[in-house]
Write a structure and sequence with these properties.
The protein has 236 residues and is α/β, with parallel strands linked by helices. It contains 10 helices and 6 strands; from the N terminus they run βαααααβαβααβαββα. Strands 3-2-1-4-5-6 form a 6-stranded parallel β-sheet, sandwiched between helices. Helix 2 (40-57) crosses helix 3 (64-76) and helix 3 packs across helix 4 (85-93). The model has no long low-confidence stretch (mean pLDDT 95).
Length: 236
């Protein structure tokens, strides 16, 4: 047992953006504002992820904004909206540009940064949306890079998406940790060789059919505390 390598802090944390850093709950209000049921927001975003991941499974890709707008047009067509469908789609999609981070993000990101861990994002959406989100939160200067799968050419959880982030950061897979609220993202990163942290704000059980995360935390400050208890990689 003494010869087994001890876990250490990652050199780089690769953050998912949508729902991990950003609070998506205001998108439901966007649906209500155009006269659609607010609950459609959750099913629409789930369908958006489904179709993006399905394309990745086939070795293809399309921008998140394109998939989201196309699905929105389908879901809103024929409903008694207070404006035409194109205007309604534009109103809902523009909601991404005004989202805020979750309440635990500002403190958590600050604490992780103070540990000397390099922070980057890897979003299935655009880097501009991530940049706006972090600018509004006053966190942009904490992040070294804002990466998007649009440059990787394929969505997460395809291995090539994570490999793109590793190459951009100049680190090997075991030196990086993917942090996400989505178990499918955690699983994809684990299969690509990264360490993983599952951010479980909801208290739900982790699916048994996915690879287990290396760390589980209910908030980013909790994750920072747990990582802070590990030796820095240079201390090994």
């Amino acid at each position: 047992m003494d010869d087994m390598p001890k876990p250490s802090r990652p050199r780089v944390i690769v953050f998912d953006v949508n729902e991990t850093l950003s609070d998506m709950s205001p998108m439901a209000h966007r649906f209500a504002e155009v006269g659609a049921p607010a609950h459609l927001a959750a099913t629409w975003f789930a369908a958006l992820l489904r179709d993006g991941i399905a394309l990745a499974a086939a070795g293809a890709a399309a921008p998140m904004a394109e998939i989201g707008a196309t699905l929105l047009r389908t879901k809103l067509s024929g409903r008694p909206l207070d404006r035409d469908v194109d205007a309604a789609v534009e109103h809902v999609m523009s909601g991404f540009t005004g989202l805020a981070v979750h309440r635990d993000v500002v403190d958590g990101v600050g604490q992780l940064s103070e540990l000397g861990i390099r922070l980057v994002t890897l979003s299935n959406g655009s880097a501009d949306i991530a940049r706006g989100l972090l600018d509004r939160a006053g966190l942009a200067d904490r992040f070294e890079r804002l990466l998007s799968v649009e440059q990787a050419g394929i969505w997460k959880p395809a291995a090539r998406a994570y490999a793109y982030a590793l190459a951009e950061c100049g680190v090997a897979a075991p030196e990086a940790m993917l942090v996400a609220v989505h178990p499918w993202d955690v699983d994809g990163a684990a299969r690509a060789g990264l360490a993983t942290g599952w951010l479980n704000r909801s208290g739900e059980d982790y699916p048994d059919y996915f690879r287990r995360p290396d760390m589980v935390a209910a908030s980013l400050p909790e994750l920072a505390r747990d990582l802070g208890s590990l030796p820095a990689v240079t201390d090994r």
